[in-house]
Amino acid sequence: MKKLWECTRMAQAFSLHRLFLLMLLPILCATAGCEKDKLYEVNEQTILPPNANKTKLKSDQQYIAILYANLFQTALSSDNLFEASECVKSIGDKDLVHEVLISNYMNSGGVILPTNEEMRADIDGFLTDTYNRFLVRNPTEAERQFFKNYIRTHPNVRPELVYFSFALSNEYQYY
Amino acid sequence: MMKRRGFIKKAAGATAGAFMAPYILPSGRLFAATGSQLAEHVVMVMFAGGVRQQESIEQTYLDQSQGIPVQGNIMYNMLDGAPPTQKVVYGTDGNLAGDTPIPAILSSTLQQQGTLFREVRSSHAGHYGGMNALLQGNTLYSQGLRQKPLNPTIFEYTRRHMGAPASKVWFVGNGIGNSTPLMNYSSHPNYGSAYGANFLAPNITFGSQGQEHLSNAKIYHPEEELDPIYQMKYFLDNNFENAGGTIETIYNTEEEKQSIKLFMREMYSLGGNIARPPISDNGDLSTVGYAVEVMKWFKPTLTVVNLGAVDGCHSNYTGYLRALHRADHAVGHIWNQIQQIPEMAGNTIMLVTPECGRNLNPNPIKDENDWLAFDHSDANTQRVFTQMVGPNVPSNLVRGGIGNQIGETADNCPTIAEILGFKADVMGSGLISSTARSLFDRI
């Protein structure tokens, strides 16, 4: 009799345990991701101009090294870099000394430039290349329009002058 | 196609025209001459690089430095007094090293031609602090070494209150060390780069480095080539400025830049054959030669020349004597050359002041003559002198003496302001030392 009573108790305890597990199951399913989350995305929008992230002024040596590499597509030796940066320090008007340095490089031969014909045959491509080479970014639509119009309406403008203006620009002095 | 010679001539003419025409200051204020100037041009020589009174004003030569009883004046372009007759080492090499003194350039000394303040107080024992006192009229102890001057310099006062364009204000340095290139303008928010001076360290610009990296510069045609370059650059700059990016500039106009480039081209073409002093065997004398060329080309309202070879005294006393003798030669040459520039002759006041003195007692370093060297850090360092010469400066006048200091190095700034006619602006700025005043008020 006692044994029978113990068996009944065990059966009751087992069914209570199963009931508890059955009640827990939906909660576990919900937290374990049985149902997929809904994702809401937004389209990417440019809210800052492409040059806004350039906040650090290049040092004299950085400016010269990058300028030389951009113009000649090769690195300037460390001796020449040191000497050229001393020259830049020796003149107070930085715009002026940069201009002299660039025109010195332009006069020295070896600057890798497209021809005037190549530039005018594909102004779009030239502008993309020039922006990428000097300013490490693509032109905005407004910039592209300005330069396309400017180059088309100024037959005396050749790639050397465009490169010169980019190398002289304030944005080029930042990174 | 315009011929090159014609183009250069035209460009130079346009530049001259630009200087004569009225112009608007960066602040927007229209320039108008005040008419109260004592002279139209000022040249200040920041003299030599730390000078002991004993070997300069007191003319004790070796007596109060090495304990050798030989006295005499080795600065006889500037000061009255007979040179030493024994142990002459400061000249050029004859039979012995330095045994041939450099002949005087001036027929009468600057002391006879102008006013000498024999004992002036230097507030700083260092070069940068001393030069800042001369340029700022202030003696800020918070001034860092590798830092732009905190208060406006005399260059900025000149450009802002007198309306001088950038190419009329020059700072010719003896090099690019010791923060020298920082001194052409301050970081003061009401002044700064827009009123800065054109700085030039000619021994580098026109030395071997400059020959290699700057001398082959192409001169672009102003209308056909430079105009488009600038137009495209300005478009890019405007776009960048909209994004918050700006560059400090001293605002040389395009015409002024063109003139400076032509000046540089001229210097390279002269190949070192410039208006050097008769003896030109150290860096200071070369610097002075180029400073004279700057004066001849631009006829500046204000020219400041920095000389520094004397600072070799830290380790070589004999070299110090030679450099001091040459610094005097350099000053004599500058004054002589000024009288040969028509626009500046009789219309220029020159001031000469060391930025600091040197110690009373030597350090243990001996040179080739077994003579001891001197640093600059003790009370003797506070003793310097100032010389002033030119129109409206009393001649043959000496003020002050041992135990009677009259004036301080910070006086040079308001003195220049008085000469050029904007003393009230500088004195009322609240930015100069409360004890600084024009040396004309101390006569």
Question: What attributes characterize this protein structure?
Answer:
heterodimer, A: 175 residues, mainly alpha, elongated, B: 443 residues, alpha/beta, eight-stranded mixed β-sheet, disordered N terminus
Question: In words, what does this structure look like?
Answer:
- Chain A has 175 residues and is an all-alpha fold.
- Helix content of chain A is 63%, strand content 0%.
- Chain A has helices spanning 2-31, 60-72, 78-89, 94-107, 116-121, 123-135, 141-153, 159-168.
- In chain A, helix 3 (78-89) packs across helix 4 and helix 4 (94-107) runs antiparallel to helix 8.
- Chain A is elongated.
- Chain B is α/β, with parallel strands linked by helices.
- Chain B has twelve helices and eight strands.
- Chain B has helices at 4-20, 110-113, 127-136, 154-162, 202-205, 208-213, 222-242, 254-270, 283-298, 317-338, 412-420, 423-427; strands at 41-46, 115-121, 169-172, 198-200, 302-306, 348-353, 383-389, 397-399.
- Chain B has an eight-stranded mixed beta sheet with strand order 4-3-5-1-6-7-2-8, with helices on both faces.
- In chain B, helix 1 (4-20) crosses helix 8.
- The chains are: A mainly alpha (175), B alpha/beta (443).
- At the A-B interface, helix 3, helix 4, helix 7 and helix 8 of A face strand 4, helix 5, helix 6, helix 7 and helix 8 of B.
